[in-house]
Structure formats: structure tokens, C-alpha cells
Amino acid sequence: MPIAALSAATRDDPLAHITAPPPDETDQQRQARLIAEAEAKRISDAIDEEIQQQERLAKKGQVVKILLLGQSESGKSTTLKNFQLMHSPKAFRAERASWRAVIQLNIVRSIRIILEALAEHQAQQNAPRPGTAQGPSSPASDIKLTPDHLKLKMRLAPLLQVEEALIKKLSPAGSGEVEATQLAQAPTSSGPIGRYKDKELAVNSSFAWKGVFNRLMNSTRDSFDSEVIDWDNPEDPGRVIDACSEDMIKLWSDPTIKRLLTAMSIRLEDMGGFFLDSIERVASPRYVPTDDDILRARLKTLGVTEYRFNIKEEQRLGLGSITREWRIFDVGGQRSLRCKRIIQKQDGAAWAPFFDDVNAILFLAAISAFDQALAEDPGVNRLEDSVLLWKSICSNPLLSQTNIVLFLNKIDILKAKLDSGVRFADHIVSYGNRPNDVESTSHYLRRKFAQIHKEHSSAGRSFYCHFTTVTDPKSTQHILVDLQDTVVRKNLAQSHLVG
Ligand SMILES: Nc1nc2c(ncn2[C@@H]2O[C@H](COP(=O)(O)OP(=O)(O)OP(=O)(O)O)[C@@H](O)[C@H]2O)c(=O)[nH]1
Ligand SMILES: [Mg+2]
User: Fold this and answer.
1) Can you say which residues are annotated as belonging to the binding site for Mg(2+)?
2) Fewest beta carbons less than 10 Å away: which of 1, 281, 285, 453?
3) What is the model's pTM?
4) What span, in angstroms and rounded, lies between the C-alpha atoms of 462 and 472?
5) Which residues are recorded as binding Mg(2+) (predicted)?
6) ipTM score here?
7) Which numbered ligand comes closest to the C-alpha of 413?
8) How far is the centre of ligand 2, averaged over its atoms, from the C-alpha of 76 (Å)?
């Protein structure tokens, strides 16, 4: 056909030229051609739909859902940070500006606890009340504060105003996402263990607090962006913290104050967000948090947060390389929150869409907390509460098919506590006169948790348990790789893909 015979549009499209119907096509031929084309389209659409369906199914099989459970401060969010550090280190590091503010808040909280202890001691010295924790015969009663201590206390007072500024910074106006009020509450009279624990900054699930530093969060750069922190801003809380750093060091290293804190059973170094041993570095004007600092920072979770990672499995299980999406749900462990949630789950209500097809539960128990009370209920021993929670998870019929991996966490604090002379058997009477060392106590607890698992799990559920210090990224990441393997293997076995 001469080019001149084609329409302008067809001339521009060489394919149209090839597929165009013959110019001398009869009505019959045209009819047959249209039927053939319709049939070809039907087959092509069916193939497309089949491919899409396969993709959907494949995707479904490749999503792994993990639920982090355990009481408040057991280390759930810290475990999640380890996942982030492993699988999206850039995003993890891009949040450093936000964590800097949290760490500053953690420091102020530690100082506040000391200043409140000094005030309490001072009040007791001026007007001793018999029968209280600091009555005349208490271990603290012979500790005398000097005028220098009181001057130090006054010089550190501006730090308390910094607290307010930091909370404001971390709670964007009108977001409704952050419940920061708990930090400024008056101390309760629940004794040394529960006294200070309820004063914490807590964030809601959507992490709007990090939005303040959004530019940095979205950055793909691995370096710290000096645009995000206005180092020269006179309002930057870091300035007051820097100005107070020498006095903070003096306060924390003072032997009388150390003795007073011990006498009042306040072990700041065991609490989350403890940075007083690194004040010089952390309070320095251009401080940028390290990975370890972020893992040690404390920010309480409210609600549920979902994180997604793509995890590539290299040649494991002989199936070649495959990328799976992992969804990890971090649940606030404070008692009121978790009870409500679990009840809701048992009712099959609000949480069902999240958790019905969870592949594994990662349960954390802070076994160093054997001598501590719950912040939310000072009459309850933390370890006992953790064991009861473990029992309720193992025996929950809705979770009977879900694999559970147990992390007996905070081994480092357990060791430090026992080494400092705290006796395990004084709090866990059933321990009897076994050795007061980390090896014996941790294995004793492992057996307890295993026994409950055996008695309350459905038949055939395996017991997976690790001793962990999740603030140590190196050892934790080994364990998480192991966990990934276990979960994937179990998942495949349940889908009858492997034996
Ligand atoms: N030394 C030490 N500190 C730990 C360990 N695990 C967690 N922490 C610290 O304990 C604090 C509490 O940990 P989180 O991960 O916030 O606890 P959580 O279970 O998420 O607590 P909620 O959000 O209240 O449910 C943080 O400051 C952590 O850095 C550990 O193994 N050793
Ligand atoms: Mg948390």
C-alpha cells in the first residue's frame, strides 16, 4: 500500500501499518477478524488477571507479621530499634535529631530524680517522721547534706524548665499524639521502687513527635543534617544542659549523694534512659546521638505502632533469594493499655484485623526486675507480673497456633544487680539457697517460663528462648537473624511448603 494512502495518524504509527486490516477486506472477513480479536483480548485479560492473582497470593505468603509483647520497659521498642538498625539503618540514623531531644529529656529526668531525693531527705532531716522510709533508724538518717550540696541543687534548678521546653518540642501543638504530662507529676508515696517511675514522657503510636524533625527523617543522607538542629538557637535546650554539665557531673559523682541514693534504694543506672555516666559527651554543645545512645534512650509507647521492612533471605533453606515484607507491631506494655488490648482481642474486636494472622509473638520479660514493683501498681512485683502475662499469652486460645519466642532480657542489669549484692532469693523466695549469680538465676527463670509454656500451650508448640541484652546491637542482631530463620521456617512448615 502506498504510504500516501494512509491517514496521517496511521502514517505516524508504524505498528498501525502492520496491524491495519487489509484494504480489500470483505464484510465476512471483517466479522471473523473482530471475533478473533475479541477472543485474543479475552485470553489476554484472563492471563493478566491470573498473573495479578498469583502476585497477590505470593505477596500474602511473603508478609511476615510479628507482634512484640511484654510489660512496660521490658525492651520491646528497643528490640524494634534493632530491627530498624539492621534493615533500614539510614532511616534509623535519620531520626537522630529526634532522639537527641529524647536523650536530653532522659538526662533531665535523672537529675530531677536526684534533686527530688535530696529535697525529700532534707525535709526528713528537718522534720523526721518515724516509720517512713527515712525514719530516724533508716540507712539514710545519718547522711548529712552540706551547704555545697544545696548550692548545687539550686544551680541545677534551670534544668527543670528545660524539661518543659523539651516536652513542647517533642509534642507538636495540636497533634494530640503525645501524652507528655506524666513527667511533671508529683512523686507518689509508693516507696523507693515505684516512687519515680511514673513520671515519663510517652508517645502515641503514629510517632508524630518525630514529625518535628521531618526534614531529617525524609533525608536519605547518612550524615547528620546541620540544618535540622539550629545549633546557634539561644532557645535550644542543649545550651542549658551544656551550661549545667559540670554541676551534673559533680552531683552524680558526689560520694554522699551516691550513698544517699543507695540508702533510698534508687538505682538510676538500672533505669531506662540512663546517661549520667556519659554527661560530658552527651551534654556537649554539638552532641549527636550514636546508635548505642538511641538504643539506650527511653520513650514510653502508647497504643500500637506498625513498622514495615523488606527483608531479603539469601539462599536460605535452599529456596534461593527471596524478599519478604516484615510487619512488626510494637505494643505499649503499660498495664492498663495491655489489659484492655488483650481483652479486646479475646472479644475478637478491634485488634482482630491486626493480629489474627500474626506469624509469631516475640515476648520480652525483663528478668532484672525481680526486686522492682510495677510503676502503675506499686503493690505488684514486676517479675511476677511478667510471668502472669506470659501465662495468659501461652494459654490464650486465639493465639494457640502462633509461635512464641521468649527474650529473657536485661541480662546486663541482672548481672550488675546481683554483683552489687542484691539477693535474688530475698525477692523470689522459691529460689531458696541456690547461688546468687547470673548463670543460676537466669537458668532458674528459664525453667519457670518453659514450665508455664509446656503446661499452658497447645500440643506441639515449641519453646524458643534467648537470654538478651537488647541495648547491645551486636549480640541482639545475631539473635534476630536466628529469630528470622525460625519464624520463616515455621511459617513455611505451617504452609506445608516444607516438611
Ligand atoms: N541496660 C539495658 N537496658 C535495656 C535493655 N533493654 C531495654 N533497655 C532500656 O530500657 C528502657 C525501656 O525499654 P523500651 O524498649 O522502651 O521498653 P518497652 O517494652 O517498649 O516499654 P513500653 O513502651 O512502656 O511498653 C529503654 O531505655 C531501653 O534502652 C537491656 O537489655 N539492658
Ligand atoms: Mg515501647
Assistant:
1) 301
2) 1
3) 0.79
4) 26
5) 301
6) 0.99
7) 1
8) 5
